[in-house]
Design a protein that fits this description.
By secondary structure, the chain is mainly β. The chain has one domain: ph1033 like fold, CATH 3.10.590. Strands 3, 4, 5, 6, 7, 8, 9 and 10 form an eight-stranded mixed β-sheet that branches. Strands 1-2 form a two-stranded antiparallel ribbon. The longest helix has 11 residues.
Length: 205
């Protein structure tokens, strides 16, 4: 696990710098596998409610996402106890994020993100405690910060118990912040297509 650094860089031909009050993120290259994504790339799920903001990783309320001409990026954080769950996600795989927006009752899907490198960074933000770490991700899609302009879980196929999910996957409530791999089941392509279609109006161009 790497220590917190104000600039994160990988040596490729070109470098892009995203400036922010918290830190500068230096991105040398966006891996090709992170481009032109599709529904079948949605393979992981994670809750992102935290104590820093009421709506985690959503602009403009949360300053952690950094926007530039070639995308939106942020460090997806997880308790260090579950750092290995974040490390397991291959570059290019999509993580589906959900949360309770502004402490509202309904759970909402808010992001589709993909890791762009394999570096796990300790406490990447000033307000992060030493118990947390993060991995740099590119935003594929991102909603707004209200239930009315996001994607309530209850309005997707993911809420249906008839899909066969039990325990942790049934209502996505008991993951303790870890990144959870979506079980490969017969209904998975339907679930992937359902949530992918609902995110189409929120895709980051």
């Amino acid at each position: 696990m790497k220590s917190r650094n104000l600039k994160l860089a990988v040596s490729y031909e070109a470098a892009y710098i995203i400036g922010g009050k918290e830190m500068d993120i230096v991105i040398s290259e966006i891996p090709q596998v992170c481009m032109n994504k599709s529904s079948c790339d949605i393979k992981w799920v994670k809750t992102v409610n935290d104590r820093i903001t009421n709506s985690a990783y959503l602009l403009p309320q949360d300053s952690r996402p950094k926007q530039c001409s070639f995308g939106i990026f942020f460090y997806l954080e997880v308790n260090s106890r579950f750092g290995n769950s974040l490390e397991k996600v291959p570059i290019g795989d999509i993580i589906l994020l959900y949360q309770k927006l502004n402490k509202q009752r309904d759970k909402c899907f808010t992001h589709l993100v993909t890791p762009i490198d394999n570096n796990l960074i300790q406490y990447p933000y000033t307000g992060t405690t030493k118990r947390w770490c993060g991995r740099l991700v590119k935003v594929i899609a991102m909603t707004k910060n209200q239930t009315t302009n996001s994607i309530p879980v209850s309005q997707t196929m993911w809420s249906s118990q008839s899909m066969g999910f039990t325990g942790k996957m049934r209502d996505l409530s008991f993951q303790c912040g870890r990144v959870f791999e979506i079980p490969t089941v017969q209904q998975l392509p339907k679930l992937q297509n359902d949530i992918w279609n609902k995110f189409q109006s929120h895709i980051i161009k």
